[in-house]
Amino acid sequence: MVGSLCGTLARRAELTFEALAAEHRRGWPSSEVTHTEENLRAIDRAHGDRVAIRPFTSDEERSNGADWEWWFHSGAVGFGMRVQAKRANRNGGYDLRYRPDGDRYQNDLLIEDAMKAGCIPAYVFYNHLNWPQMRPGKPWLGCGHGPFTEGQLGCTIASALVVKQTLRGARVSSRYVKHRSRPWNRILCDGNESSAPSLEIAYGRVLSLHQAALVELEGQTELPEAPSAVARLPIRSAISKESGRVDRHQRDGEDDRRRADHETTRGAAPLSSTERGLRRQLREMSDRPVGRLPQRVRAMIRGAEGEPADRRVAGAVLVNLGSAEP
Q1: Considering the entire predicted model, what is its pTM?
Q2: What spatial distance separates the first Cα and last Cα of the chain, rounded to whole Å?
Q3: How far apart are CA 2 and CA 146, in angstroms?
């Protein structure tokens, strides 16, 4: 689809893949910040009529663990992600044990502050190595906008819970993280099915990543190969200009996925009260329908100036995935 967000994201991924590989060969790779700025500027140039950007400052990032906040909407209805970007090193690994304050992991800050902001916590990885050659034809490799190419692995998305899980081990596994990340253009595809609105497609795929990572974090099953049922749930009829709400859907196997607060991974120490509370919020997030945008995001749609209620959430990238008026 010429001019689609999906196409722009695919091109940026391929450029990132090639640029980072060349930079590592020369011995002077750019930082995550540089790649993030280049990618967001390119998105803004290509889709300025449907994208609004207000990036985080470095001080804000230190307090919330995020590089940007990504909102997708149709009118006044949508969902948000808090995003931390990580650049792959020469061998393909990531610096995931970073502690901005010397004490707590950046991952913890990201997840906790994402919950406060009502966003799904996620990572975007900038890569230069291809790893899924042994998995051709898998559903996540394709969408309706063209065939998969290895360059699309230049920018991938993973749930922040995937990183949280691997940080629990003595060694951080980049393989574990890589195989649970997906090309961002395949996840944030802005429409490849005439029967489903773009917001449904994007939200279903993002939420599927979050749900699968939560299941693994709580020690139930391995990550499913195909997207979960929520990715196929129709929400078109539930998006209402009057109410701005989406009806709650019942999903098969929902009770099987949920855990009592006192349950933990087999053999692990009991969860602290803080972690139990966080797990509850994460489960609630996994069941949350698309809803009305926060006031601070609606203000961006209207082009209104002014300070957000919470200075930690000043940065955002807002993408219109529908034609409804806010």
Answers
A1: 0.79
A2: 25
A3: 11
Question: Locate tokens 């700025």: which residue?
Answer: 37
Residue with tokens 């690994």: 93
Residues 154-182 have pLDDT tens digits of 999 999 999 999 998 888 899 999 999 99
Q: What is the Cα–Cα distance from 301 to 295, expressed in whole angstroms? A: 10
Q: Is 165 helix (H, G, I), strand (E, B) or coil?
A: helix
* CB-count exposure of residue 26 (10 Å: 0-12, 13-18, 19+): exposed
| Residue 120: strand pairing partners | 81
Q: pLDDT tens-digit profile of 16-44?
A: 999 999 999 999 999 998 999 899 889 98
Phi, psi angle pair for 6, to nearest 5°: -55, -45
Tell me the CB-side half-sphere exposure of residue 54, using CA atoms within 13 A: 20
Q: Decide: 138 and 30 in contact? Cβ < 8 Å.
A: no
Six-digit token pair at 135? 């998995």
